[in-house]
Amino acid sequence: MSIAGTAASADFTKICPLVSRRTNRKYAGEETRLVRVKHVEFGAGRPVIIGGPCSVESVEQTLELAHTAKASGADMLRGGAYKPRTSPHDFQGLGLEGLEILREASLQTGLPIVTEVMDPRLVEQVGAYADMLQIGSRNMQNYPLLTEVGRFGKPVLLKRGMAASLCEWLGAAEYIAKEGNFDIVLCERGIKAYPSGEYSRFILDLNVIPALQKETFLPVIVDPSHATGVADMVEPASRSALESGCHGLIIEIASEKVGAARPKCDAAQAISPTALGRIVEFARNRAGQKMESKACAV
Ligand code: PEP
Ligand code: MN
Asked: Which one of 221, 226, 253 would you pick to mutate in the ligand 1 pocket, going by the greatest count of ligand atoms within 8 A of its CB?
């Protein structure tokens, strides 16, 4: 029997036997698989906070935000060099030049990089610079791309398709795992459902976090930036996501310097490095409290 509105268990065992707890007995218990990206661990008790710009726009912008993200306590740097834009007339990212800039930012700060790859033909190129390859929402069901990143072998951040069911999402993870790569972190980034678009860009589906943890051993993080699309909503959404048990957050930031250029992409949802610092503090305090209450219970 299945819970109302969920896929039948047979669907999971057929579609995603490698990443389902039901069938992959190695992770049958409560355990979450640890996914390591250099020194950063997803799925351990400490939430991983990723911060950075939506897109890499210049050396100055990226280095400034990498250093401020680091100073705010972030564990990793995000930034797109290849951007999936609704209009082909919009800024598409700096491509290879953007990857070079990200590498320099990582060298200067020690923060590992996550960046998006959209094209199976570019997995080698992007993978040479990225510490973690991001599959964007629009490409969650790009099966040749999933197979390529699975073969490439570096850790993958798999964003949820904006209209994807849990089963379809895990089916996408299965494509990566089928190539022998289990270093997959899932990312809830909001779904299209009534009334998305009215007061927020998407609807942040926090219900999916415990549902995923029941179904799979893969860690899951939340992207409150794209889920809300509104800077003021990012802090409350982040706190709620952490309370729901996610293993980390990926957040877009922009410079708070007076006179700084407005981001070319997703400006309305970018928060300041100061606000990112408050989220990191909340995450660290909460993780500390959880550790303390565990210790008391022993
Ligand atoms: C992004 O992270 O910059 C992005 C485009 O996200 P999504 O694929 O979730 O829309
Ligand atoms: Mn963005």
From this structure: 226
